[in-house]
């Protein structure tokens, strides 16, 4: 129990701010899909988003190529992530993305150092890609494509009737087809990462593995996001421009008949 009731309010406010920031991030991505103009910068999180995603891996890769020291390379990558967290704290920005990056680099560095194998710095990335691949495959098997789930959850939060919520957008054949095609595209991206990087890991090509991780990171992500925008955006804009169906139509018709009678 907190000694000061104000502590509870502070914790609630902090949690609310975190949820709001994460929701705003999701909304911004969906808003980009609905926009008539594609913004490469917005799709990859701007310059800061690119630096936070690319720089730690790049630092580890370059440091290891030069020194062949796992601990030194991991520490330098971790310091880079810590700087990003500190910068966001000073600027009073959402630090969740930076903290997640710091934790991921810490786990990756520990995996490499404890096993005395630099390849394992990249092992958590395999698990993440495999996890996303599995989630997307499940969404495809259930005919509830992951791209559609993300977009529609932003538009209409899941209610107490998930079946009705799902039917509200699955029934739109063209939009559902675009969701389905773009979801397959994201599965191809995660599958390609595994197909390219795993053989390099198995054959101990650590330097090439680092390069592949960078190439198949932000650049590939931006390309797939753009293709998703090409397929989904026109249909989302068309769907949003349609007038909403009148509510309680079935209830209004009997009332009109009674008036006519």
List keywords for this structure.
261 residues, mainly alpha, 2 domains, 12 helices
Description:
By secondary structure, the chain is mainly alpha-helical. It has 2 domains: 36-119, no CATH class; 122-241, no CATH class. The protein has helices at 5-34, 40-43, 46-67, 70-90, 96-115, 123-141, 146-155, 162-170, 173-202, 206-215, 218-241, 249-260. Helix 6 runs antiparallel to helix 9 (173-202). The chain is globular.
Structural class: mainly alpha
Helix content: over 70%
Largest sheet report: none
H-E order: HHHHHHHHHHHH
How far from one another are the termini?
A: 66 Å
Q: How large, in whole angstroms, is the Cα Rg?
A: 23 Å
Beta fraction: under 5%
| Overall geometry | globular
Uncertain residue ranges: 5-24, 244-252
Protein name: ABC-type Mn2+/Zn2+ transport system, permease protein
Keywords: Membrane, Transmembrane, Transmembrane helix
InterPro entries: UCP010219
Q: Quick gist of this model?
A:
This is ABC-type Mn2+/Zn2+ transport system, permease protein. Helix content is 81%, strand content 0%.
Give the SSE layout.
Elements: H1 5-34, H2 40-43, H3 46-67, H4 70-90, H5 96-115, H6 123-141, H7 146-155, H8 162-170, H9 173-202, H10 206-215, H11 218-241, H12 249-260
Helix pairs in contact: 3-4, 3-5, 3-10, 4-5, 6-9, 9-10, 9-11
